[in-house]
Structure formats: structure tokens, C-alpha cells
Amino acid sequence: MTDPHEHELRVLNPATEEVVATVPAASEEDVAAAVARAARAQRAWAALAPADRARLLRRFADVVEAHTEELAWLEVREAGHTLGNARWEAGNARDLLLYAAGGAERLLGSQIPAPGGWNVTFQEPLGVIGVIAPWNFPMPIAAWGSFPALAAGNAVVLKPAETTPLTALRLAELALEAGLPEHVFQAVPGYGATAGRALVDHPDIAKIVFTGSTRTGREVMERCARLVKPVTLELGGKSPNIVFADADLEAALDPFSFLDNSGQDCCARTRILVHEPVFEAAREFLAGALADVVVGDPADEKTRMGPLISRQQLDRVRSYVPDDAPALRGTAPDGPGFWFPPTVLTGERPDGPAATEEIFGPVAVLLPFTDEQDAVRLANGTPYGLSGSIWTRDVGRALRVSQAVQAGNLSVNSHSSVRYWTPFGGFKQSGLGRELGPHALTAFTRTKNVFISTEGPAQ
Ligand code: NDP
User: Fold this and answer.
1) Which CATH architecture has domain 8-235+430-449?
2) pTM for the structure as a whole
3) Is residue 316 in contact with ligand 1, taking CB distance under 6 Å?
């Protein structure tokens, strides 16, 4: 990554290493000014009738829809995402706007029986929300933090990752084009050590939504604690893919369960745990599947996997895969760009670094298990608890293992993880709080309780 004291961000195309754009980097003063503007704008935004806020967000969705191709191509160029994935990501931002808009009119409080009066609760917006987004899914993750917050009547100041500021900037422009009031949704591209920290430390930021590494998340939480500031953390993962002998092996061992987005996915199923009776069959299947993966130019519609985001990330991934490590390997292009081949490590210890730390690249480990108990023990043997898959035709076993695995998002006979209409978040060191789903807006409100006496004048 670039020097945080520089005044601009140089956005590289990770497939070519060419400079795609340079963007001014926000200073601490720039962040403070954005927060002050947001605080003023938020009051009027919160005072709008919920139906009017919802209407504006639906218009925003229409504008995003009309710019799907443009947004998708920005994601291809700045993040190296395949075009198909990037189109899906723009669609995800649009869909979440529509879903969150519906919530603006459904921010329900409650009425609680109390003698001598009426007791009611209100869900009030928090104020200005700081969203700190990572580079792995720049557009969806910016949207997940920002759009439900906006729908609940908050303003948002969004700091994208220094490597991927372009879609965030464009989304903020599109919000204005859709008619959202000025300064209700601002993007402040900058470095984590300056702009990110300034957002976290600002007393007028009512809540931080952070997605990124567990290490930085811990620091964000510590700094928020000084101001007793609430925080949502979506952090790392090292998710298991538990494959029992009775599973549909081809579906269970789909290599895109860990190769999607070049493995730069916090939900990637990077620990492939296979029941001993089918272990050899699994190894053979994976060897063939990796060889078939088309890795290359993400702008080519035939490409299934693109590059890693940066030289730094490439070095990090390489550090887990020595040349002589026993592994199944696919291929990757040579030359400029941050390329790494699809890889499954086959000689790792279950408690070793490659099997327990988040690599965040197209690398999984293959490990055998003896029985259900052993599978659960291995699955829970990391500090993380974000996601995971369980493959078996035995319904009772699927339910038992789903209950025993410590993770926030599991799928049975499926590798799906994130839907905008279901809650998403981690156990253990994978995070705190939930995003998305029916309660997403509530996470951006505080509950006020009001008791109204019905006592009349003394008779
Ligand atoms: P970080 O967690 O450091 O970055 C995530 C976001 O936080 C970026 O916007 C970053 O800005 C910002 N940031 C960095 N430092 C601070 C700070 N002190 N205060 C406030 N904000 C800050 O992740 P990295 O980009 O360094 O990636 C390293 C590893 O983290 C990856 O290899 C992967 O394992 C994991 N990761 C996990 C993600 C997930 O979805 N769970 C997403 C991204 C990374 P800037 O871009 O300037 O650094």
C-alpha cells in the first residue's frame, strides 16, 4: 500500500498494474468538515416523512440500476473483479436500496403495558454514521453499511479502502443525482491511518461500521470504547467446508466455494474438511477442478478468476505457500498483474498457520476427519466464526452439526452466505453485531422509552 502521508491515492488496475486514477486523499480536517456537513444535513433528512425518504432511496436504486455497467466496469478496473461478479455487485447495491427503503416506513416501536399511563418506545436515528469499507467487495460492503443507515434517518460518511475508492465516490454522486439532499451520503477516500482514524475518533460520529481485518477491527473497537461509541465489526474468517461421505461430492467440492473473488472473501470456505472414506476421491476431484479454472483478464467474460488486489496481498498469500509445499495447483498468467494460481494445500497440520489464519487468496487446505465429532472439533479450531458449509444427505446430522459449529452464517448443502434480506455477521473474532436482514435498520437507531401519565387532576 502507499505511504499514508501522501496526499493522493493512486488506484491501480490489479490485472495490469497500470494507474487507473488518482484521487485526493482526505486529511483529518477534510474528514472533520465532512462530518460537520453531515451533521447539519442529517437533521433535515431525519425530519422527512418516512415515505419521502423511502421514495428518494427508491429513486437512488433506479439511478444505480441505470449505471450498472459503469459501476461494474469501475469494479473490474479498480478491484480486478470478473465482469460477471461486478455486475452482480452493482445489482446487490440496487436491491439493498429497495429493501432498505421499505424499512423506512416500518421502523416500529412498541407499546408496553404500564399502570397509570401509556408506555411507548421509539426507534430514533443515531445521527452520523461512519462506514469504513475494505477493498475486497468495495461496492456491496459500502452499501451494506450505508443504505440501511440512510433509510433509518442517519447521514453517512463512508471511507472506502485506499486501493478501491472509485465506486464509493460514484455512488455518492449518484445519490445526489437521484435527489438525496447534499451531504447526507458522502464518500471520503483516504488512508486508514489518517482518514479512517479521524472518522473513528470524531465525537460527532455516532457509530462506526467497520469491515476488514480482525487486527484493525480490534484497534477500531478500542478507540470507539474511549468515546463509548457503538461499533459493528465484520472481520476475518477461516470457514470450514464439512463434507461427509454421503454428500454430493461435486457440488460440495465446487472450487468456487473458496476461489470466488480470488479467495478475497471473508466467507471463503478455505478449510476443506473431508470424511475419510471419500478423502482420496475428493483429492482427485479437486485436482481436476483446479486445473479447469480459467484465470486471467477479468474483463473477459470467459474468465472465472482474476488477480489479487495488490502486490502486498500477493506477497502475503505467497508467504503461506512455499514452492515445495505439497499442494494441488491450477495455473495463473505471468507478467504484470498480481496473479496467484488456485491452490489446495494437502500437507498442512490442522493447527498450523495455513489452516487457521486468514490467507485471503485462492488457497485452501484439505484435511481429513474421522467422524462427526472430529469434524466439529476441526471446524471450531480457529479463532474465527463467520461462515461455513455442511454437506450431507442425513437431515439429523445436518441439524446437529449446524448447531455445533460456532459461526454466524452456515449453509447446508449449499455454499451461499450473504443475502441482503437475511442477517450477516460473525461469532468469536469474526465480528460483532449484524448487518443486512429484517433488523438492519434497527442497528442504526436507539430506543427511547416514553411514559405518558393518564392520571387526571385530583378529584
Ligand atoms: P484493514 O482491516 O487494515 O483495512 C480495512 C479498512 O480499514 C480500509 O478502509 C483501511 O484503510 C481501514 N483502516 C486501516 N487502518 C485503520 C485504522 N487504524 N483506523 C480506521 N480505519 C483503518 O485490511 P487490509 O487492507 O490491511 O487487509 C489485510 C488483511 O485483512 C487481508 O489480507 C485480509 O485477511 C483481511 N481483510 C478482511 C476483510 C473482510 O472482509 N473480513 C476485508 C479486507 C481485508 P486503508 O485501505 O487505507 O488501509
Assistant:
1) 3-Layer(aba) Sandwich (3.40)
2) 0.97
3) yes
